[in-house]
Task: inverse folding
């Protein structure tokens, strides 16, 4: 298992880190070329795009990874079914621009939806080939393709932005990315399209995919309702500021948690009957993620202004929102790993229950914040919601899945809290640097790294990690 994790983590690390560097670089350039209101338009339409991607998947992807008994012929049948879904959803999205334009009183969504209809089709079509590659643990191809498509998309988006294509530069870039990923995944898996739909393979994955889809469906609304409503009730510019802060707060998840969660389900699904082994992996992962996430949350709170300035001074209104959302970073890092653990334990029913509870907390927080009329209130109430979600998700894992108790989980947070306190003390005492913000940010980043290294040595975690690595060679 350790060798599989090492191999998976290696290629996933290369892919994830390269992808984040590419996306962040593209975002920095585009943020200085486009206005917050233009980003707000893209953020609005992305809410619908993500929803249609969810509909295109309907839980098929994780079900293919989990079910080791599916034959190649059965997978081809499932692929044919998913292609029909992708075609139908793509056509629907083409016409979706009309009601969206009416709701937001902006006709630009009509032309945007026509382009994104193509994007929806390709995202739906690549579900089965990509899941098949993950099932085969071909992390190298998946991650290299993801990075390559992001690079091509970024070059196209930046070129079009310079040419004055406004928000269309991002829309077209995303569409090209989906197309490139599908072409490569499809050609590399040898997946065949079957015109006749065979429902027998679909029945084999129905129970798993149903719960997975329902979780994704519910989780979608709880995660995207803020973007959906802020643009229509406050303003597109406010949505742009909020989305920028939220996107920045998600980067640690993409860089760190995404690296691990991408390989959890494909590898741990082989140990579905060994709950103790899955529990051990989860507790250790939570400890590591908290050790990184808690100090990082502190760093983001104290340095939010310098980080936002990287995108340009026009984004400074995002700073208070980022400072609040920064407090959720460590929580989201741990929560994002729970889905793969539920899947590995073959308990998507518990995953669904966790999703329902999360939605209740998230939606309540979002609606209350929007009613109060400020994006800072939305962020603050989301912090409260994520905290409640952290408790309920871990209760379901520890008590219901592992048949243990919640008290067994909380000790893994003790040392990470000490590391976070050390960072808070240092940054509270640190004087303001009278220099360019980028130089100041780099210096503060070095200070953060040094304090963190001292912290893991003092707490004994450095010795433990070294022992784990050396002991598994």
Result:
């Amino acid at each position: 298992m350790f060798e599989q994790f090492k191999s998976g983590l290696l290629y996933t690390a290369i892919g994830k880190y390269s992808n984040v560097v590419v996306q962040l670089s593209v975002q920095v350039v585009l943020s200085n070329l486009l206005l917050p209101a233009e980003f707000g338009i893209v953020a609005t339409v992305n809410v619908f795009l993500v929803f249609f991607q969810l509909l295109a998947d309907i839980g098929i992807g994780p079900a293919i990874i989990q079910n080791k008994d599916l034959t190649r012929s059965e997978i081809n049948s499932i692929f044919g079914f998913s292609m029909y879904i992708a075609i139908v959803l793509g056509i629907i999205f083409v016409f979706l621009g009309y009601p969206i334009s009416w709701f937001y009183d902006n006709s630009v969504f009509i032309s945007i939806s026509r382009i994104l209809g193509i994007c929806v089709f390709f995202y739906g079509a690549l579900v089965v080939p990509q899941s098949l590659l993950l099932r085969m643990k071909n992390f190298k191809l998946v991650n290299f393709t993801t990075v390559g498509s992001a690079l091509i998309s970024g070059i196209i988006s930046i070129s079009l932005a310079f040419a004055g294509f406004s928000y269309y530069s991002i829309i077209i870039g995303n569409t090209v990315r989906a197309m490139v990923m599908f072409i490569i995944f499809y050609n590399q898996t040898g997946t065949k399209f079957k015109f006749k739909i065979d429902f027998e393979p679909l029945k084999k994955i129905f129970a798993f995919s149903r719960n997975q889809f329902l979780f994704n469906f519910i989780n979608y609304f709880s995660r995207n309702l803020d973007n959906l409503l802020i643009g229509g009730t406050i303003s597109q510019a406010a949505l742009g500021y909020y989305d920028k802060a939220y996107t920045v707060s998600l980067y640690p998840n993409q860089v760190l948690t995404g690296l691990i969660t991408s390989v959890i389900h494909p590898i741990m699904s082989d140990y579905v009957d060994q709950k103790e082994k899955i529990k051990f992996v989860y507790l250790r992962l939570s400890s590591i993620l908290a050790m990184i996430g808690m100090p990082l949350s502190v760093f983001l709170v104290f340095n939010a202004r310098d980080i936002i300035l990287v995108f340009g001074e026009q984004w400074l209104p995002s700073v208070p929102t980022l400072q609040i959302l920064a407090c959720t970073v460590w929580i989201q890092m741990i929560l994002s790993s729970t889905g793969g653990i539920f899947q590995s334990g073959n308990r998507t029913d518990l995953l669904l229950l966790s999703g329902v509870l999360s939605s209740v907390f998230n939606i309540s927080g979002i609606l209350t914040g929007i009613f109060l009329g400020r994006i800072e209130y939305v962020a603050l109430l989301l912090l409260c919601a994520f905290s409640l979600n952290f408790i309920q998700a871990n209760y379901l894992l520890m008590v219901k899945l592992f048949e243990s108790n919640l008290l067994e989980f909380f000790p893994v947070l003790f040392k990470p809290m000490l590391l976070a306190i050390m960072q808070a003390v240092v940054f509270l005492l640190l004087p303001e640097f009278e220099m360019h913000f980028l130089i100041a940010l780099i210096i503060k980043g070095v200070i953060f790294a040094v304090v963190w290294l001292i912290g893991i040595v003092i707490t004994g975690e450095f010795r433990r990690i070294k022992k784990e690595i050396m002991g598994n060679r």
